[in-house]
Amino acid sequence: MTDIWQAALRDLQEKVSSHNFQSWFKNIKYHHCDGQTYFLEVGDEFLKAWIEDNYLDLIEDSLEVASGEPVEVKLDVASAYERQKAGGGEQVVQSIDAPEEAMAARMGRLQAEGQAVVDAAVVAEPSGAGQTSAGQSQMKLDRASDAAVRPSEPNPSPQELAETMMAAGINPRHDFDEFVVGPSNQFVHAACSAVADNPGGSYNPLFIFGGVGLGKTHLLHAVGIEAIKRNPQARVVNLSSEDFMNQLITSLRQKDMNSFRTQFRNNCDVLLIDDIQFIAGKDSTQEEFFHTFNALYHSGKQIVITSDVMPKDLPGIEERLRSRFSWGLCADIQPPEMETRIAILEKKAEADGIEMDKDVAILLASSIRSNVRELEGTLIRLGAQASLMNQPITLDLAREMLDRMNIEQGRELSTEYIIEVVASDFGITPRDIKGSRRTRAISKPRQYAMYLARKHTDHSYPQLGEQFGGKDHTTVLAACKKIGGLIEDGDEEMTSLIDGLEAKLLR
Ligand SMILES: Nc1ncnc2c1ncn2[C@@H]1O[C@H](COP(=O)(O)OP(=O)(O)OP(=O)(O)O)[C@@H](O)[C@H]1O
Fold first, then answer.
1. Tens digit of pLDDT for each residue in 222-231?
2. Would the CB of 377 count as within 6 Å of ligand 1?
3. Could you check whether 115-333 and 338-404 share the same CATH topology?
4. Name one GO cellular component term (predicted).
5. CATH for 2-87?
6. How far apart are CA 452 and CA 429, in angstroms?
7. Is the CB of 217 under 6 A from ligand 1?
8. Among the listed residues 431, 345, 428, the one whose alpha carbon sits nearest the alpha carbon of residue 393
9. Which of 105, 136, 172, 350 is surrounded by the most beta carbons within 10 Å?
10. E strands, 12-120, where?
């Protein structure tokens, strides 16, 4: 039976994107089979619920293909005993307080660490964007000290809530509503929502990792915002690991470690730590963070950490910390796909009152692919330029600007755009294409659009099925095979029809 499961896994790997396969399917374990019912195991309740809601049919399809008979799948969570055995996670409670007599020595080491961080930041950011000047650092420290300030009233006004968030260094604009969800970030988004709904619950710590400018800090803030909205009395502490270190240095200098510990270990319900990679090689900071982590974790407080890489790949971080970071849920965030990039641009444009046609959004989204911060920056620059020149944002203006910025213009297309172009060419609506009517006048253009979407985007058949109004992946597969087959066989009418549509798409 495990052979059948392995064959089903291979089939799944072909049907979904590699990112989805890694996130959802790779770690599903075959447990046993009873007749035609397959019992599979996953790591936790969250994965179970997510896979059941999104992928159960697909798994059953693949098992049916592999076994040659109808099957039913039942998912369950691996028992705590088995998980412990498999993960070997340390559960030993470590001593919480570092010995006071070691403090003087640590003080010396910490000062050296602090200096090193400041120097590194200055060297890395000569333009000044990431200055770590004494004033700025102190400002961050003051803000972090205020972090757990709560509104005095039990039912604070929206204004008071916003002030509480800002006191904690949280940008109130970075909430879940402002975050555009797509396949590249839906898992981490769902994990963050689950944590905000139930801090200190099953996913503790939540460890978010991914490349530069992909929305890690945004989601960290969103967790804090939601936690404060749900419980205005919750003490949310939000700071970067560098600020944690600076605050530790200040407390040691002022011989006030008690306040430091009270703030982080006793007066904190949700600890949000951004960019944990910055404490690499800072042994004393790591030691203090280790005790902070233990104190919060063992008293059921929520910890959320962001990083540029997954825990096991964090260089210069002690093994005991890295293993703790993996105790809860690790969720990665990938560069957004074309559709998500377009949706982000449209959302930001609307929020900032920038008027822009869809074709401009497509041009920007296909030219800047791997960093949302850059994408946003380009949009703001374009908006500013159009407003200064008192002219609308046109494709030509966007092209000129990309040229001046030395950004190569992309030609990637989105499924949504392909559907729009094909629909308009055949005098029907995108809704018709996404709908279920099967008249020839609609089903033919639908097949052309499916073929073109498969050819010009990097979406899998199941993803395309979703984008075409929730169709089964086999429908998309069949359309692609049919149109592709006719073209391969030299059907001139079909070739020229598809060429014509492509010319319009790539114009
Ligand atoms: N899916 C998204 N929807 C809306 N905005 C997004 C999304 N992803 C990123 N952004 C925006 O992109 C910008 C950069 O995001 P953020 O600062 O959270 O990235 P980061 O991953 O923390 O980057 P770094 O690695 O540099 O710390 C922010 O303005 C954020 O609001």
1. 999 999 999 9
2. no
3. no
4. cytoplasm
5. 3.30.300.180
6. 17
7. yes
8. 345
9. 172
10. 29-34, 37-42, 72-77
* Ligand 1: residue whose CA is nearest its atom 23: 213
The pLDDT score that the predictor gives to residue 112 is 53
Task: List residues forming the annotated binding site for ATP.
Answer: 213, 215-217
- Coil vs helix vs strand at 69: coil
Q: Is 115-333 CATH 3.40.50.300?
A: yes
List the residue whose alpha carbon is closest to atom 5 of ligand 1. Answer: 179
Two tokens, residue 248 = 């530790």
Region of residue 40 (phi > 0: left; psi between -120 and 50: alpha; otherwise: beta): beta
Closest atom of ligand 1 relative to the 173 alpha carbon: 31
Q: Where are the domains of the chain?
A: 2-87, 115-333, 338-404, 415-505
Report strand pairing: 37-42 vs 29-34: antiparallel
User: Which CATH code is given to the segment(s) 415-505?
Assistant: 1.10.1750.10
Distance 402 CA to ligand 1 centre (A): 21
Low-confidence ranges of the chain (pLDDT < 70): 17-20, 23, 44-46, 79-154, 506-507
As given in the structure block, the two tokens for residue 386 are 């159009």
CB-based contacts of 481, cutoff 8 Å, min separation 6? none
Q: Please state the pTM of the whole predicted model.
A: 0.68
> Residue 306 is encoded by which pair of tokens?
């962001």
**Any idea which architecture 338-404 has in CATH?**
Orthogonal Bundle (1.10)
Give 43-62 pLDDT, tens digit per residue: 766 677 778 877 888 899 89
**Amino acid found at 358:** K
Check if 221 has its Cβ closer than 6 Å to any atom of ligand 1: no
Please, what is the Cα angle at 129 between 181 and 217, to 5 degrees? 25
